[in-house]
Amino acid sequence: MTTRKSGSRLETEIERCRSEGQWDKIPELVRQLSAKLISNDDLGELLLGECKLQAYLKENPIKQGSSPRGPRLKLVEVRKHLTAALDRGNLKPDYLQEASLLMAKLCYVEAEFREALGHYGRVNLDEMQLAGAPVYRLSMIAEAYATKGLCLEKVPAGSPSLSNKNSGSPSSSRSTTDREQEIITCYEKSGDIALLYLQEAEKALSAGIQNRSPKPGPTTQEQELGYFLETGLQRAHVIHFKNGNLTQGVGRFREILRAVETRTTQNLRMTIARQLAEILLRGMCEQSYWSPLEDPPAVSPLDDPTRQGHIYIKNYSLSRSPRLYSGENLFCPQENTEEALLLLLISESMANRDAVLSRIPEHNNDRIISLQSASVVYDLLTIALGRRGQYEMLSECLERAMKFAFEEFHLWYQLALSLMAAGKSARAVKVLKECIRLKPDDPTIPLLAVKLCIGPLHWLDEGEMFAKMVIDMGEKAAEFRAKGYMAIGLVYSLKATDASLRSSQEEYQRKALGAFQRAQSLSPTDHLAAFYLALQLAVSRQIPEALGYVRQALQLQGDDVHSLHLLALLLSAQKHYHDALNIIEMALSEYPENFNLLYTKVKLEAMCRGPEEALLTCKHMLQIWKSFYNLTNPSDSGRGSSLLDRAIADRRQLNAMTLPDFSDPETGRQQVFLLIWDFLLSVTLNFHSGKTDALKSEVYIGMSKPAEAAACTQEAANLFPTSHNVLYMRGQIAELKGNIEEAKRWYEEALSINPTHVKTMQRLGLILHQLQRYSLSEKVLRDAVQVNSTAHDVWNSLGEVLQAQGNAAAATECFLTALELEASSPILPFTIIPRAL
Amino acid sequence: MFGSERSVVEEWLSEFKSLPETHIPSYAGSLHLKKSLVPALYRVIQDPNNELLEPVCHQLFELYRSSEDRLRRFTLQFLPELVWVYLRITASRDRQSNGCIEALLLGIYNLEIVDKDGNSRLLSFTIPSLSKPSIYHEPSSLGSMVLTEGALCQHDQIRVLYSGLHPQRETFTAQNRFEVLCFLMLCYNAAVVYMPLSSYQSVCRMSSRLCVCGFPRQQQKLWREPCNRVLLDPEFMVQMLTAVYHAIYNGEWEMGREALEDIVYRAQLELYSQPLLLGNAMKSSLPESAPDDPRGRKVLQVEVTPTVSRISISAITTASIRRHRWKREDTDGMSGGEDSFNINDPDEGFSSGASNSSQPSGTKAGGGGGVGLRGSSLSSSSSSIKKAITARLSRDREKVREREREADRKPELLTDHQPAESRPPQRQQSPPSSINLEAIHLSPIKKHLSFPVGPALVRTGSTSSSKSFDCMTFNLNGGEDEQEEAARGEDKERGISVGGSHRHSTISLQEEHLVRPEEAQELLPAGAPLTKQSRSPSFNMQIISQV
Questions:
Q1: For FRET with A509, which of A624, A813, B14, B400 sits at 20 to 30 Å CA-CA?
Q2: Taking CB atoms and an 8 Å cutoff, what residues of chain B touch A647?
Q3: Domains detected in chain A
Q4: Which residues lie in Low complexity bias regions (chain B) (predicted)?
């Protein structure tokens, strides 16, 4: 307001009270005012009318969606005041306008919509000054636009609307579209000015506090927006969406969100941010997206095609607009998931802040409301991040929700799943435990826990506990019952592999077999049940039975890589090496980069076709390995990129190979690397030895060039100095060179790192035998047999030692066992096939 | 297949062949007017023995190869049906009749993986960070996040590649099958808005059937055709969910919800965490009621929301705790220079502008209001990282204080074990030394550093940008202090238990891997190799610089 006079403290005080909505102080101020000047009587009437109207609205607030209720007794007085102010015409033009606007508002409250529009017709709303106007006046103009919009909506389009813009034109000719356009423009202007008002009010408030008192007084008190401003802020986009005009609705949402937030708009912003994110996730896609700073596309599939006539064109500009977020390097989303994520992160921070933490009964309702609103945001965040594979970040977000998620199953479960998806297995299991406590009847949860326990974690005891939970559910577990038995079978099967004592090994194998049989009978159409039963039978060297089940598994799932692999190994155990190789090659045509298959292929080729071909396959493997690691070089990809995740997942699959040689808990890369060194070394050894029998050639060596192998091993040793495998290889090379003592030292070192490495034990036993230390040799070999009772070459060595000691009877026993085992021995241990849920 | 449908398809086949290049745009515009064509094409695709299948697949590919978006989208609408037919036949091991569909799918894939210039198409997006100002917010008004590793990583907006570097594929193998199909579904989802309703029905049908066929639930369905179980990939299921989610809100409410249920059912049976996670979120955020019109869209229901918070002011929330704490500190006379560090109390994750303004700022006692807000925004925009770190440091300021009190009670004990604690209190009041203090006792970041094989480091390595990590190091070392360095070393030796026992976070899950080193070892294989290969030199340097 340009006419504001300085000097009058009273006027300033009145202005402040009006801006801050302290209506109860007005009558007293008016009394002081009228004591001063005669000409202020009209202003007094205006102020009294205003404060009484506001007081009435405070006591009888208009609810959203309800109509005003018509004339009321209390309002008669208001009308009297305002009529008095208007009639005498002594008011300054600014105040006169204000009086008219108040009158129009009163008319609306009394449901006199046409009369209200008449008042708006007389005051030219568009010409009211926004620049320099006092704060209360901004609010008044915003309310006026909103009220005008409300009135226009109430009054049928055909009837005369005395809008200032087209007041002269014949109203009957106007189409509904024009009317709709006018209504929306009113609301949008109202909303814009309301935002400006709130920003200015907050500025004035803080400035006022600084000037007047050192204590923050009414700052903490929430400012209520009231029906008219709320309508003005929101009605425009509500209409856009009702008309199916998503493009405009999105545009309006963005406009509101870009305005600098005030305390009063926080709740609104949170809602709108969430709703806009919903639209972006549910109704938009990458190709239909346009950035907030771009113009929307002319034709958008977002908009309801049946309502094409309702296109709204924004065609106004205000002399003063709300402040927008500005600055350099402002982040502006360029993609729909980006924008959705930004909005959801903002909503999340707000939802998180407002979540009710106390659990006292009085706040129960509040708590549930805040929990629900936060929960919706977290669900949307899950959808947005999940479709981009950002599970790591998601798990961090969900973790922030935990402080108000006490006993809230959904949030706990989602956290557990996100941790699992992010590869944070140990914590996922902890959270899953809590989920089980909250929902003990759901068999999926313990099964998820078993999956982690027997997979990446190798917590077999915990896995057994979770699997038993599922089994204890009995019939209630329904389709998951078979999975429960499969899970416990896998736990026992892995325990058997880990067990160092033959008796407990056999006990676990027996239990595993029983569980797998149960699983298979419960779910005969599940190829995994048949496959694991076959695998367990194979490990127990029941080769023909295993073949039967693996064929069954393959009938159910023809290209299951593990079933094919097992079939090949079973055929190799029956010494049908060529058939096995055919199967492996067939499997490789479906899985050309599967290291396990390639490894088996190398061994089989060395057996059937000679080491040259095996060496070629080896080189091929090295190439795949190289390209694999080049591809996943993380230097160019960022945090938790899904590509990275995929690479990690692939690597996990590689890690899952439980080669007895590589069972040490070291990194996956090292395992793969060593695997390849092992191939190279063994193939090199075979190659140079010129022997075709790979199994024997690994033991009896007549290698001419140990230097090459030594160089290989040295390189491996530099990379992994504490690997028992490397030490074992060094021992072998020392043996090749004829340094028996040195070899013995290497083997002993290898055993000090991994005391149950059967291959090393066998070699050491043989060396001790050569050194004629028979009883020690016998001891080492007996230990080796304890660890792995199916290692036929160890039995053979043991037999030789016993023979050397003159114990012919025992030696015969050993040789017979070795023969028998060799007859059912696969080219690689069956346990090379990963076992996981 | 009826004769009329057949003739519609045949006409379509011949029309496009004879079409001159110049007529293509008008042809693309009129294609959707052929109402009977799309159902007829579905019939052809569904029937593997139809002799029109091969020419139809060929022509669909020709359309996809054209530069006209509308023609490409015409082909794309059949993608779900094609994927379904392909996977069903693959599961039944009847490969030969699948050839032309396979060829079409691979053809689309090979076209999509490269951009116009023939370079590998890289699909990436930026993860927004609240600590960077955006068109929708100012960092100071939301407060900083807890300075977890995650927060540090997010300090820079990170550009993430979510798809790319796909090699050309000549054939489908079991190994590449879902890589190709995932990518195809990604393309479908990127254009899902342009798909007609019939395509949404097809994607719902495909998802339901793929998830239940061969499982007991198939018996409850109308569709009972015997079929082998179809192997599914978790990522592919996520793509299915994305498409189904869209269908639910854009006209296929009933079918979409059924498909969603079926995907969740299958994800449970397969124990796949990713689709289960998304499916649960989608289910729990579904509106309670169907749209009024069963085929209507329900992207959003908006009502005028009250601007006043529905939460009563007396309820304890994160924000209220913060307000309370400030008040208390103010009356305790604790507001010194130190309080300026308390602007954002990260215990609560975020602090708000609202609370900010009601908080008596340390520098301007009683200032409050919008001024406080503006002030903090100024400082934060200049050094948001530093601010976040300070915020993090202040997080345990309370605990520090508690321990100080403890230290007063039994000083001799603490002097023995933690020399840093017994420093004169006035030193702790000054900002730099408070940073040092924090550096000594609680930062998990340092713990990771002292634990080179721990999973946390691995995670950092694979996820964080080393830049932000450097920042951390720098700030921790900000106040160079011999004593502090020594203390840090000692703390490192005593390792986990000391730090762990003093942390009382709302959930103590965080500690799990700190107190279980053996577990940490087992966790390692998951992410380690990559880290080792790519990061280890710089990380080792940092570790060295820490020690």
A1: A813
A2: 530
A3: 2-209+224-256 (1.25.40), 265-294+334-405 (1.25.40), 592-754 (no CATH), 773-837 (1.25.40.10)
A4: 349-363, 374-384, 423-433
User: Any idea how long chain B is?
Assistant: 547
Q: How do strand B123-127 and strand B158-163 relate by DSSP bridges? A: antiparallel
* Alpha carbons B263 and B241: distance in angstroms, whole number: 7
Q: In this complex, is the C-beta atom of A656 within 8 Å of any C-beta atom belonging to chain B?
A: no
Does the CB of A399 have a partner CB in chain B at under 8 Å? Answer: yes
Distance CA(B226)–CA(B407), nearest Å, equals 74
Rounded Cα distance between A339 and A335, Å, is 6
Nearest-Cα distance to chain B for A32, in Å, is: 30
What's residue A573's pLDDT? 92
Q: Which among A63, A197, A200, A206 is the top mutation candidate for probing chain B, defined by the most B β-carbons within 10 Å of its own β-carbon?
A: A206
> Which letter does DSSP use for residue A704 in this model?
S
How many residue contacts between A and B have a Cβ separation below 8 Å? Answer: 464
B215/A479 CB distance under 8 A: yes
Taking the C-alpha atoms of residue A807 and residue A795, their distance in angstroms, rounded to an integer, is 14
> Where do we find the tokens 């009085």?
A362
The full length of chain A comes to: 837
| Alpha-carbon torsion (A752, A756, A757, A760), positive or negative | positive
- A556-559: long-range contacts, CB 8 A cutoff, minimum separation 24: A556/A525, A556/A526, A556/A527, A556/A530, A556/B228, A556/B229, A557/A527, A557/B228, A557/B229, A557/B231, A558/B93, A559/A590, A559/B174
| B33 vs B44: CA distance, rounded Å | 19
* pTM beyond cutoff 0.80: no
DSSP secondary structure, B372-425, as one string:
HHHHHHHHHHH-HHHHHHHHHHHHTHHHHHHHHHHHHHSHHHHHHH-GGGGS-H
User: Which amino acid makes up residue B490?
Assistant: E
CB B397 within 8 A of CB B342: yes
A273 with B135: Cβ contact below 8 A: no
Q: Do A353 and B350 touch (CB under 8 A)?
A: yes
User: Of A230, A590, A651, which is closest to B306 when you measure between CB atoms?
Assistant: A230
CA distance B509 to B5: 62
Among the partner residues B278, B302, B308, nearest to A386 by beta-carbon distance: B278
Query: What is the amino acid identity at position A440?
Result: P
Cα first-last separation, chain B: 77
Q: Label residue A594 exposed, middle or buried (CB < 10 Å: 0-12, 13-18, 19+).
A: buried
Each residue's pLDDT tens digit in chain B (547 positions)? 678 889 999 999 998 888 888 888 888 888 888 889 999 999 999 988 888 999 999 999 999 998 888 999 999 999 999 999 999 988 886 666 678 999 999 999 999 999 888 888 888 888 888 888 899 998 877 654 444 455 555 556 778 888 888 889 999 999 999 999 999 999 999 999 999 999 999 999 999 999 999 898 998 888 888 888 899 999 999 999 999 999 999 889 999 999 999 999 999 999 999 999 999 999 998 887 777 665 566 666 666 666 666 666 677 777 777 666 666 655 554 444 333 333 333 333 333 333 333 333 333 333 333 333 333 333 333 444 444 444 444 444 545 555 555 555 544 443 444 444 444 444 433 333 333 333 333 333 333 333 333 333 333 333 333 333 333 434 444 444 444 444 444 444 444 343 333 434 333 334 344 444 444 333 333 333 333 333 333 333 333 333 3
What B515-519 contacts at long range (C-beta under 8 Å, 24+ apart), as own/partner pairs, is B516/A426, B517/B451, B517/B454, B519/A426, B519/A457
Rounded distance, CA A415 to CA A401, Å? 9
On whether any CB of chain B is under 8 Å from the CB of A649, the answer is: no
